[in-house]
Specification:
Layout (H helix, E strand, L loop, with lengths): L2 E2 L9 E10 L2 E4 L1 E2 L13 E5 L2 E11 L2 E6 L9 E6 L1 H25 L3 E7 L2 E6 L6 H16 L4 E7 H4 L19 E7 L3 E4 L14 E8 L5 E7 L2
Parallel strand pairs: 1-4
Antiparallel strand pairs: 2-3, 2-8, 3-7, 5-6, 5-8, 6-7, 9-10, 10-15, 11-12, 12-13, 14-15
Amino acid sequence: MTELLFHNESYLKEFEATVTDVVDGGVVLDRTAFYTGGGGQPTDSGTLSSGGQEYQVTGIKRDDGKLVHQISGNLPSVGSMVSGAIDWDRRYLLMRTHTALHILCGVVWRDYGAQVTGGDMRPGEGRMDFEFENFSAEFAGELEAKMNFEVAADRDICVHHLSREEADKVPDLIRTKINLLPPNIQEIRTIDIQGLDLQADGGTHVANTREVGVIKVVGHESKGRINKRIRIALED
């Protein structure tokens, strides 16, 4: 099983690893700092280097329980030591974006009690769907102001690991309409924007809300009678 280094260190840009398997179109490593995808956050890209050769990693895919670092062309051999480097500019923008979505979710839950019904993101922009009956341009402006107040509040963001038993005692840990945590998962990773938002989450985030920068509500639309989509973007 591949050790997921990003779970404990989101700011890790480079790492050393060993190729444990070679499959069609990629390699499996014993450890990785590449984000492997999930929760709406896309996989990382970057490079692996070994023996003077550099390999472009275009993403991560799951294949029969293995995490395959996708590479076009020649592949390093099993047992090779490789040096990995993620595309940091892209990753850091995704970290800021993911954290911004948590701020959005935290404000909506705290002030309006609406559950999440879906979400997605790309570098610098994302969207979340909530159980709202009504939504207006005035409400979007109010929400934008509240999110940026939380950014400026200088809140630290911490990662914790809870046992399933501990996690089940926190009623608001899962904000989605449907609990997406399979019952066989016995350790739950949480993201805590201190004083605002605590959620189960496997993605990468910044260490403090100030790193997010200015959040803009750039769109909103109805996706059903009680399902409203909110689109956000980060200013450069």
